[in-house]
């Protein structure tokens, strides 16, 4: 159990946790009616004169609407309900109010209240697809699947052009054991959106239920191709492969599923903990971290921003916002949150170090050097950091300084063969092939079994015209390793010469191996 | 209901053809064909009635809660049906929790003084019970959880294993109506939080081994506060580390922990939070395998490799996660071949907003979640299921399902107003409709099914020897309920009690295959099942429409087969002794 988990565990309670797990589709599902959308709709309606008037009757500005939007984002549903109820008291027929109320109640697990409000919205606007779809989802969450199916069916009639309406009815039909109805709905959805992994998984399940294993395999494979991180697709594909006798492949897919499932479980747990305890900066940040671990940068960013909204002094969130921006190549934009983090945590090595990196990426040499010096005041660099910063600085034109960083490290740690190799590479890149050769030799002496050291060293030898030495070095390397490492380092000086030596002396064609 | 206290002891050894061996291969008949015109099942109602008061079961479970919401308070306890005095009548055992122990090894003298221990009820005939706790010496006053029965010393008298929040206990049946506590000399008495337990002879050496499921690592002094700010509630098991299960090998009456050796020890405690266990030969290879339901972590299916070791194959077999690839809050478990395709299907109970889950077996050791197709899933979304049994309650030849329900949080209606979920819940009875789907017939099954209680353990057995299956239910902090099945007498049946000779005496792992009109039905004598409970080991088969079986074959553990004569009398139990 991670420390993160321990930090939040006291807030979790079984039924609420499961209730929220069940309710999530109501929040984030394909309906497209997330809190932001609902609140935005409310906001846009507020812009209409009539509603503006209404809101002003309750509150003289639209600040309250923005407040609700923010509360919904932060999943503070009790507070949201308090505001919305006040507004509803002033004007019970105000547009979208009941949708918002139902949404908030639903997320608290009070399905009855949610249903009451969605129905009120439906009375107000009998053509409201939002009310119909949310009624379906509220009944589904409550376990009344027949009722849910009825509303999803109505939704499909109202909005046959939306694949989500077909998906939801298909899902409930399947749960009710009505394979034909499920199949028909999923097919209709796929006709509108053939790229939906969810629809494909739904269809695959029906095929499995009907014992059409080959069909199911194809469908799950398709879903897998569209979204390899879809745990559901992985799980079902693994199962069907095993059923079809492809046990080894099935097990491999299931192993992948297990990893995804663990990540999903962790994420679910953190989200539910937060929902129960209320959104704080730390638990919101923890959700962001779990998303980041899955490579879901945009969603992670949203959570980090939410964390900052809750507590603008929570520096790890600023730091992570910068990290995501950097990952997306937004080096300039990342400076602001980095500097904010630095102000809040002036002694943080990580923030100073990241500032150095970021300025290097922006080719702002002096700032990069200054921040690195600043980071070194907190502590010295370890091996990986030394190698990384050296390579980054060399690649971004801060060559001398970068070399010095690694040199300093090697002076203290002369047995670090990996750093010798990187030093060699950096010298190789800067055309000091002879200097590079010395470090390669040292790296090979320290770690003779590492084959890529030898391949790159033989390139340096070839570049220096030491044909025999290069040829001898090549002979010690198995051909598959040679091909692989050559392909990786072929942009280095001496690669072409080495290729020629390999071809002439050993009859190995390296040129075509990329 | 007719009382027919006939227990005919037949020594069938020697009758029938030469014993043969080989894998079990019941005739595979496509599901969906009605067994017959089904004379009894049609539109009958009120199948069960509550008889605990009139039959002498006055057990009231006490969880000992004082408002602090210590985790074990809500887990309830088990029930058991077994014949401890070999008089042919099923006796009842109910596990008591009692006052909260301050530590796992706390002196339970107060509980004992208050008569807050487990209770043994002797069936004096016809399903009438008298309390035999004192005279038998079986009133363990530890904070009780579950119970398992097994004649571990093969002396012909069934012994009792009790799991506790605290040290577990083994009572040896001395054969004279009394029991001796032999926990320590037997090498048992694990102090972790034990839940389900089950006997079986996994190494086929003729004596019974024991699998004990441990739940989580928890102590009163490290209780974590859970729930919203103003309401204290029981925690989710995620909050605590799990606790690894134990497989004990019986070495001449002394038990040895072989969990690691056998490959059933889980190193990561967070992966092992078990509650239910059942031994089942899921792959029809003649040796017993283990299925464990874990609470919110993937379930285990340990395939018996036949060499003393096991491999967890749950993931690839399709029974670790549900159809959505999600773990569920596994509580109770049972198995049965609901479509008579020759392979054991698994059914387990879960939390509300999850379905109870039916894993249908296709053979080859592979399963698929059929909760939706079978209609068992949607019917459970609002309930928290615990005790569970798969049995043919209406003697129509198809296996039906009973689930004992009850939420775990008293304040659930306050915590989740408007969710439609309640603390006390109604039990459910599902009728098998020709091996394809199940229909919830609770509303017409009798007044019991209209009364909400907090169900936990449930044991299944024929208390009055009329051929039908009655149910003993333990309810959390409430009175136990004895449900009498009132179909007895209106349907024909055949009952068998198996006694092993070279196999373990309880014949755990043996199967009986009954063929009639081109269809083969089978049941397996097994350890474990349900929730913290142990059911009647005898097997009974309804004979719908008065059909006579074409053949009755016993498949003993290890694979030898024994064919019984076609002239077995109906309407009674036969004792079948394994031919040497």
Features:
heterodimer, A: 514 residues, mainly alpha, B: 580 residues, mainly beta, 4-stranded mixed beta sheet, disordered N terminus
Detail the topology: elements first, then pairings.
The complex is a heterodimer of chains A (514) and B (580).
Chain A: H1 3-8, H2 14-28, H3 35-47, H4 49-58, H5 63-73, H6 77-90, H7 97-108, H8 111-124, H9 129-142, H10 145-158, H11 163-175, H12 179-192, H13 197-209, H14 213-226, H15 231-243, H16 247-277, H17 281-293, H18 297-310, H19 315-327, H20 331-344, H21 349-361, H22 365-378, H23 383-395, H24 399-412, H25 417-429, H26 433-446, H27 451-463, H28 467-475, H29 479-489, H30 495-506
Helix pairs in contact in A: 2-7, 2-9, 2-16, 3-5, 3-7, 5-6, 6-7, 7-8, 7-9, 8-9, 9-10, 10-11, 11-12, 11-13, 12-13, 13-14, 13-15, 14-15, 15-16, 16-17, 17-18, 18-19, 19-20, 20-21, 21-22, 23-24, 23-25, 24-25, 25-26, 26-27, 27-28, 27-29, 27-30, 28-30
Chain B: E1 7-8, E2 48-50, H1 52-55, E3 79-82, E4 91-94, H2 109-113, E5 119-123, E6 129-131, H3 133-136, E7 143-150, E8 159-173, E9 179-181, E10 194-200, E11 209-214, E12 246-251, E13 254-257, H4 259-262, E14 274-280, E15 289-294, E16 300-304, E17 310-312, H5 314-317, E18 333-336, E19 345-348, E20 357-363, E21 366-369, H6 371-374, E22 385-391, E23 400-405, H7 412-415, E24 428-433, E25 437-440, E26 455-461, E27 470-475, E28 481-485, E29 492-499, E30 511-516, E31 519-524, E32 539-543, E33 551-555, E34 561-564, E35 573-577
Parallel strand pairs in B: 1-35, 29-35
Antiparallel strand pairs in B: 2-28, 3-4, 4-5, 5-6, 7-8, 8-9, 10-11, 11-12, 12-13, 14-15, 15-16, 16-17, 18-19, 19-20, 20-21, 22-23, 23-24, 24-25, 26-27, 27-28, 29-32, 30-31, 30-33, 33-34
